[in-house]
Amino acid sequence: MAKAGFARVKAVLSGDTLVLVGNSGGAGPPPELQVTLASLSAPRLGNPSRGDEAWAWASREFLRKLAINQAVKFKVAYRVESIKRDFADVTLTDGNRNLGVEMARAGWAKVKSSGDGKSAAFDEMTAAAAEAEAAGKGVYNTDAEASAAAVRTVEWRTDDAAALLPTLKAASPVDAVVEMVRDGASLRAYLPAFGRMVNFNMAGVQCPRLNAASGGRKRGGAGGAGGDSKGEEGGVKPPPAPERKAQPYAEEAKAFTEARLLNQDVKLHFNGADKGNFFGVVEHPAGSIAAELLKAGLANVLDWSIAHAGASIPELRAAERTGKNSKKRIWKDFTPATVSGQRDFTGRVLEVVAADTLVIKLDTTGARQERRVFLSSIRAPRRGNARKGEPDAPFYWASKEFARKFVAGKTVNVHVDYERKLEPREGDKGPATVRHYATVSVIGKGEHNHLAEALVANGYCEVVRHRAGDERSSRYDALQAAEALAKAEKKNMHHSKAAEKGVHKSTDLVGDVAKATTFLPFLQRSTGHKAVVEHCFNAGRFKLYIARENCSIAFALSGIRVPMPARGPGRGGGKGGKAGG
Predict the structure, then answer these.
(1) Which of 91, 68, 87 lies closest to 13 in space, CA to CA?
(2) Nearest to 436 by CA among 507, 364, 512, 362
C-alpha cells in the first residue's frame, strides 16, 4: 500500500495504532497498512500474558469510536526500521481533524519526540497535550483510585462455554465489541459488561475455511499408530504437519465481514455453546450479516447449528436460495434439482406402506393415476424379514399405525422436494427406479397438518442428516426443531427403554395353512371383527389385521368373481376368477 493517500480505518488496535485499508480495485483482498500516529504514545492494551496499562482501554475506545470505518487522509511521516513500524499523520476527511491532535486534546495519549522524525502537527499536538495535562484529563488524571479503576481486568479464555451459556443467554442481547474476525462467520468479541473475551459463531452459517488441511501425512502411516517412531526425543523426526491452505473465497468472506463488523459495536444473542465456542445471532443496525454472506455466495447454511439462529432461520434459508439461484462464488457450479413428473399435486392416500412411504391416488380426470412417495428427510423404523428371521425394528408397527390414522383415506397436498435414482441390484435385469421424496400435508387438518413433522415430534421417526448442498425437505428446520423437542421429552424411540417399549408382536396367518386352521375357531366365535385392511391383492381378496386377536389374515369375499390384477409391467389383467369359495 502507498505511504500516502486516502483510505478507510479498518481497525483500531490501541489508542495510537490503526489499520488502514485501501481500494482493492476488484481483484483480491484490498491492500492494508498498519500505522502508529506520529509523535504520539498511548497506554498499552493487555493480552493473555500481561494486563492493561492504566487508561489503555479508555484510550483505545475513544479512538475507535472516533475513527473506525471512517474515510481518512494519511501520510507516513517517518519509519523506525528497528521495530519495522510506520508513523503517520492521519486526518479525518469529514471535518479535517487530525487524529493525533484529537487524542492529545482529550488526554488519552502523550506527545513524544523522536530522533527518527515527527508529526507535521507536532506543535499543535504539544499545545493540546499541555491543555489536557493542566485540566487533568485522561492519562493526566492524578487520582490514584481513578487510575487503579481504569485498569481493565479481562477473562481471556472460556474453557466451559456451556456452563456460562445460561448467564449470557439470560442477558441477551449482550453489548459487545468485535475484536477479531477469524473467518467470515466466526468472531472474537469483548463483552464489557462481563469483562470477558469470547469466541462467537454466527449460528447456521459456514464460510470457506482459511486454514483447511490440504495434504500432509495421515495417521496410521509411518510413525503413526502401531509404528515404532519415538519422535524427536528418540532421534526420529516426526511426520510433517499437514499443509494449510485457504479454501476458495475464504479471504473474500473474511474481508466481507471485517468491513462490516470489525471493531464495531454489536449486540450478541447467545443461543448455544460447544466446548469453548458460543453460537447465536449478531444484531447490527444495518441488518443480518449472516444473511448477507449467504446472499453473496460466501457461505452456506450449516444445518447442525441453525437451530441456534432462532427467528432468523427462515431469513437464512431464503438468503441461501438467493445465493444459489444467482450462482455467486461458492455456488458458481450449482445446478438446481429437477424432478420427473408433477412437483405439486393433490390426491387421496390409498395405502400406508410404512410410516414414511405412501401410495397416493391423484385427483385427475381420465385414467386412474397412483404415485408412491417417500417422506423427505426422515427415516422410519424398518420392517423385518420373517423368512430370514429378522424382527421388525422397534416402533415399526407403532409408527405405521400413527401414519395410517393421520393420513389414510384423506386428501393431501404433496410437494416433491427431490428424487433419488436407484440402480438395479447386482444380477437384477430390471431398469433403474426413481424414488420421489416429498412433503405431505393433510388438507383441512389445521396448523399441525404435516405428516413428517407429526411423526418426528412424537418420536416415531428420526431426521436424516444431509450433506452440505444436498436437497432436503422444504420444512427441514421444522423437522429438526420437532426432533430436538422429542429427544428432550424422551418420546418413544428416544426413550431409554425404546428397544423394549417399541416391540410389537403379532401372528401372521397369511400363507400358513396350519396356523390359520388353528385360529379359525377363535375367529368364528364372534359374529364380527373390526379390522384394518393392510393390503388389497385384488378387488375381492385382502390382507386384514384384527387388533383384538392380534393377528393378520388373508380374507376373500365369497360368491363373487373379480378381474385379476396385472402381474408385471406392461401386462394386462386376467379374465377373472373367484374371490372366494
Answers:
(1) 68
(2) 362
The pLDDT value given to residue 512: 83
Three-class secondary structure of residue 251 per DSSP: helix
Q: Which long-range contacts (CB under 8 A, 24 or more apart) does 360-367 make?
A: 360/412, 360/414, 363/411
**Confidence at 238, pLDDT banded by 50, 70, 90:** low
Taking the C-alpha atoms of residue 579 and residue 556, their distance in angstroms, rounded to an integer, is 6
pLDDT value at 115 more than 90: no
Helix, strand, or coil (residue 512): coil
Cβ atoms of 93 and 72 closer than 8 Å: yes
SS3 562: strand
Beta strands 357-362 and 265-274 are: unpaired
Specify burial of residue 365 (Cβ count, 10 A radius: 0-12, 13-18, 19+).
exposed
Which phi and psi (to 5°) does residue 42 adopt?
Answer: -105, 160
Query: At a CB cut-off of 8 Å and minimum separation 6, what does 445 contact?
Result: 410
Residue with cell 508529526: 119
Residue 311: strand, helix, or coil: helix
Cβ atoms within 10 A of the Cβ of 504, count? 14
In angstroms, the CA 293 to CA 10 distance is 19
DSSP readout, 38-96?
A: TTEE-PPP-BTTBPPPTTHHHHHHHHHHHHTT-EEEEEEEEEETTTTEEEEEEEETTT-
Q: The C-alpha cell of 509 is what?
A: 396367518
The per-residue pLDDT for 128 is 97
For the segment 440-460, the average pLDDT, to the nearest whole number, is: 93
> How many CB atoms are located within 10 Å of the residue 136 CB?
13
Q: Rounded to an integer, what distance in angstroms lies between the CA atom of residue 55 and that of residue 110?
A: 12
Nearest alpha carbon to residue 460 among 468, 470, 472, 452 = 452
List, for residues 480-515, the tens digit of each pLDDT value: 999 999 999 999 999 988 888 888 888 888 888 888
CA-to-CA distance for 515 and 341, rounded, in angstroms? Answer: 45
**pLDDT for 539-569, tens place per residue?**
888 889 888 888 889 999 988 888 877 665 4
Cα–Cα distance, 551 to 312 (Å, whole number): 50
- Taking only the tens place, the pLDDT of each residue in 123-148 is 999 999 999 999 999 999 999 999 99
Q: Residue 535 pLDDT more than 60?
A: yes
Which DSSP string do the residues of 484-500 spell out, in sequence order?
HHHHHTT-GGGSTTHHH
Transcribe 361-429 into DSSP letters: EE--SSS--EEEEEETTEEPPPP-BTTTTBPPPTTHHHHHHHHHHHHTT-EEEEEEEEEEEEPPPTT--
Length of the chain: 581
Question: What would the grid cell of residue 64 be?
Answer: 475507535
State the chain's mean pLDDT as an integer: 88
